[in-house]
Amino acid sequence: MNNNARTTFSNNNNDYNNVGNPQKIGNPVNPHEEQQNSLLTRVVSHVQKLNDVMVEVTMRLQEINEYNRDIVTLSQVWGNYMRNVAFNLESIQRLDDPK
Prior knowledge:
It comes from Ambispora gerdemannii. The protein has 99 residues and is mainly α.
């Protein structure tokens, strides 16, 4: 038997009422539980940080999309203006060929 692994057994029936504590319900203690809890805490912390960063990225992408909508609108206005100018110049026969 591994000397590092602490094992606690109990024959007392009252110990089975303490479900949250494995030492009191007669189950052997997991020797890696502290390491697993530490790793789980790190994972949760990193996921929270990742979530915060993703919220920030989402906000920045929304800002960029708003700016892009303004650029698209300006581009459409400019394109309509250029078509109108070309139409009017053709109608008065003053459209020169591009060089």
